[in-house]
Write a structure and sequence with these properties.
It contains 12 helices and 4 strands; from the N terminus they run E-E-H-H-H-H-H-E-E-H-H-H-H-H-H-H. By secondary structure, it is mainly alpha-helical.
Length: about 260
């Protein structure tokens, strides 16, 4: 097993390499050596509850796979002859992000399945989620919940409120394109509706209380724009990042906006 596919290295700090464009690589540490790193216990519980509501509702109960959804998706993949359908758990998404190259083939999918099983036997659920939160992309060049919390809202990850947490869930899996909302200084109408649906689902699943839901409904989403913010440069960054982005899913759904 190669070093990149060795779960033992994920039990400690490790160097993460991201291809942000063709032959354009970004490296950063996933660990305390990185000032943007946030240990799982210091992440707002609303972020965790929102992401486990939208991305993987049974994350802490399954063993790496969302059984009913995964079985259906795999059958469709085999019939299509290539990777097309998702049904990815948070564990699978973490494996794709930090252990595998981004090509989409059935052979790679099978490798992903093995590594997901392997990771689930080697790491705790909290460690898997900690890596996921500190490695995923939240916008052009914005990796990890620590950097995202400060960039979008000018606060630490521990202080993210339910509305902001639901926004982070709403921009996945296309954070580059959905970053345009930050440039505009306000969320799209479709995003506002999605945030409300996420909050309602969190309430239904008892991940927030009635009081927390009531407060969230009355809380507007306000982006933080520092003194150096330039709207034109912001949109230019989105355009450049989309043009240079490495494709991850040839069948990705289109945005509402």
């Amino acid at each position: 097993m190669s070093e990149d596919a060795d779960a033992a290295r994920l039990q400690r700090s490790f160097l993460h390499v991201v291809e942000v464009g063709v032959d354009d690589w970004l490296t950063f540490m996933v660990g305390p050596e990185n000032p943007d790193f946030v240990p799982i216990w210091d992440v707002s519980p609303f972020v965790i509850k929102s992401l486990t509501t939208t991305e993987d509702g049974r994350f802490y109960k399954h063993h790496g796979f969302i059984n009913s959804e995964f079985k259906s998706a795999l059958i469709k993949d085999l019939k299509a002859g290539y990777f097309r359908y998702g049904a990815s758990s948070i564990s699978m998404q973490m494996v794709k992000n930090v252990m595998l190259y981004r090509e989409k083939t059935l052979s790679r999918k099978l490798q992903e399945l093995f590594l997901t099983w392997y990771v689930e036997t080697q790491l705790t659920k909290d460690r898997i989620l900690e890596i996921y939160l500190n490695a995923i992309e939240f916008g052009p060049g914005i990796y990890g919940i620590g950097a995202a919390a400060r960039h979008y809202f000018g606060k630490e990850a521990r202080d993210i409120n339910p509305v902001e947490a639901a926004f982070f869930s709403s921009i996945l899996p296309n954070p580059k394109k959905r970053y345009k909302q930050f440039c505009a200084g306000k969320p799209w109408t479709a995003t506002e509706h999605k945030i409300q649906r996420i909050l309602a689902l969190m309430l239904k699943r008892e991940r927030i209380t009635d009081d927390e839901y009531a407060v969230a409904e009355a809380t507007p989403l306000v982006f933080y724009h520092g003194v150096d913010f330039d709207e034109r440069k912001c949109y230019a960054l989105v355009k450049e990042s989309l043009e240079n982005a490495r494709p991850t899913d040839p069948m990705a759904e289109q945005d509402d906006e």
